[in-house]
Amino acid sequence: MKIPQATTKRLSLYYRFLQHFANAGKERVSSKELSEAMKIDSATIRRDFSYFGALGRKGYGYDVPYLLRFFRETLDQDVETNVALVGAGNLGSAFLKYNFHKNHNTKIVVAFDNHAPIDGEIISGIPVFHPDRMEELLPNYDVEIAILTVPSRSAQEMADRLAELGIKGIMNFTPVRISVRDDVRVHTIDLSVELQTLIYFIKNDGKIEE
């Protein structure tokens, strides 16, 4: 059965909140408790879980340790994924400082930026090189996913180069809708659009059905 995209986007959230319940000593949790904690309708939670079979029992709820193991395996939480960052400006630098491996199974291992010296430099413990060396160096880092935080004018060119280097997924933080081969998946996060959407929801609270 094909899992809806909206459901797949919530899987990491389920895993995070189940970790909170486990850390609080909870052995079982109901869809209502998850709903109240996550602010997601309980019917949506039950429907999401139903795509993966019988994860809970009627009258009992969900076994927290079991669900944690299930989602850890589903999300490959025990397998670390290397990530490349392309564009180490203001937003990119924030990613370097945070880096994901502290709380997740992803880790930025290399970055490229036009202002980096050709021989590279270390920023927040991560080697940063000039993009002229991307074809030479990126294959050394076992990377399949890249974060794109370059200026809009460079987005398509960089995406094309990443695709040619075998990158399978690009998280695009530019407002440009880049086009790549069918075997490369792109998730675009336009912060200005997200902000305008938030403003709209605030101003129209109570008028919109989610």
From TrEMBL:
Residues 76-177 form the CoA-binding domain. The keyword Membrane does not apply. The keyword Acetylation does not apply. Keywords: Cytoplasm, DNA-binding, NAD, Repressor, Transcription, Transcription regulation. Pfam families: CoA_binding (PF02629), Put_DNA-bind_N (PF06971). Residues 13-52 bind DNA. NAD(+) binds at residues 87-92. It is found in: Cytoplasm. InterPro entries: CoA-bd, NAD(P)-bd_dom_sf, Rex_bacilli-type, Rex_DNA-bd_C_dom, Tscrpt_rep_Rex, WH-like_DNA-bd_sf, WH_DNA-bd_sf. Belongs to the transcriptional regulatory Rex family. Homodimer. Modulates transcription in response to changes in cellular NADH/NAD(+) redox state. This is Redox-sensing transcriptional repressor Rex. It comes from Chungangia koreensis.
